[in-house]
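Justification of computing resources. Each target in the renewal requires a structure prediction run like the one illustrated here; the chain below, 97 residues long, is used simply to show the kind of job we budget for.
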Amino acid sequence: MAKLYNEPKVLYFASRDEGLHVDSNEQHDTDLSKLVSSLKRDGLIEKAASDDSGSYYRTTKSGLMAHLRHQINYRKRNNKDYSKQESELRDLEATAK
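Resulting structure tokens:
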């Protein structure tokens, strides 16, 4: 069975205003739970909130930069304009120094 989640998808959802929701009943051996653990360890996402339904994760500045790099690569491969993402990435990189 194909994986439902990958790094670009998890970073995409975590970069949205509502963040990435992980159900409190999510098993620890799923691709989502493994990715969340890995991205947290790497400092790309952080837990933003939790409630009785689960936890919400948001991208860190590093995570947002990784998300933009994924978008740029995807848009290049599919011959789409990526100037907006490049501009956002340059702005973030400038403030990271």
